[in-house]
Automatic annotation (TrEMBL):
The keyword Transport applies. Residues 145-164 are annotated as: Disordered. GO terms for molecular function: electron transfer activity; heme binding; metal ion binding. This is Cytochrome c family protein. Keywords: Electron transport, Heme, Iron, Metal-binding, Transport.
């Protein structure tokens, strides 16, 4: 049975659209053009970084400088996304906007834990009914109370002698579970249940909750320190370019 001639234009149009769709799907996406040079402002003198030369001419892979492995077709994150000019309140509030989505958060923030895997009844049985094995004696609390009654959730201000819940709990648990703590805990999963970070919508635990003093100096380098560490260590390893103490003028424009 032959189709009427009036259907030919429709069939031809559908065939053309199908070819265009298949060609568009199979054609690889055009990669973003790499910047040739990047200008960095600095109080010690501006720095002109020859980005394209380092990547193309020196054959330096992206991951040698950029920490994260970017998804297929995506550009590596700018250094300023993680390394601020100064680790101040403004950066803490605004840095989230530097990332495409929240999946990047756990590259710096620890995996969160939904709840404590703690069985109170089992511990009462282990202690033979002796509540003071975990709780304070009657000189501090006449009857066993919840830890949060006295110990704050967050680390207290400097000078306050009352430990927070995490420190108090770890200290008390370690007194009994010496086999775990003496060998060093390689993960929090021994006692805590991991949260599903793909569905996480809450805040992240503050750095100071686990890291005692100046966590930003331990965990997040400022942009200046990050560049000095990354660039100079690479030049020193290759014994080429500026890496000595008096080579500042080779990068900075006075």
């Amino acid at each position: 049975m032959r189709l009427p001639r009036k259907y030919f234009p429709i069939i031809a149009t559908c065939a053309v659209l199908l070819v265009v769709a298949v060609a568009g799907y199979l054609t690889p996406a055009e990669s973003q053009k790499l910047p040739v040079r990047i200008l960095f402002d600095n109080t010690g003198g501006k720095v002109v970084f020859t980005h394209l030369r380092h990547h193309r001419d020196y054959a330096i892979a992206c991951e040698a400088c950029h920490h994260e492995n970017a998804p297929q077709g995506a550009e590596p994150l700018p250094c300023g996304s993680c390394h601020p000019l100064a680790f101040d309140e403004q950066y803490v509030k605004q840095h989230v906007a530097s990332f495409p989505d929240k999946t990047y958060c756990i590259q710096c923030h620890h995996l969160e834990y939904a709840k404590l895997n703690f069985g109170h009844d089992e511990h009462v049985e282990y202690a033979g009914g002796d509540c003071q094995a975990c709780h304070h004696g009657p000189d501090i609390e006449p009857e066993p109370q919840s830890c949060r009654s006295c110990h704050p959730e967050e680390k207290p201000e400097s000078g306050d002698s009352m430990p927070d819940q995490m420190e108090a709990g770890h200290t008390r648990c370690a007194s009994c579970h010496q086999d775990m703590f003496d060998h060093g805990l390689t993960s929090c999963k021994s006692c805590h249940v991991e949260a599903d970070m793909t569905k996480w919508h809450g805040d992240f635990t503050g750095c100071a909750q686990c890291h005692d003093e100046h966590p930003e100096k331990e965990l997040v380098l400022t942009r200046t320190n990050a560049f000095h560490d990354q660039c100079m260590s690479c030049h020193e390893e290759r014994r080429q370019g500026p890496y000595k103490d008096d080579d500042c003028n080779k990068c900075h424009i006075r």
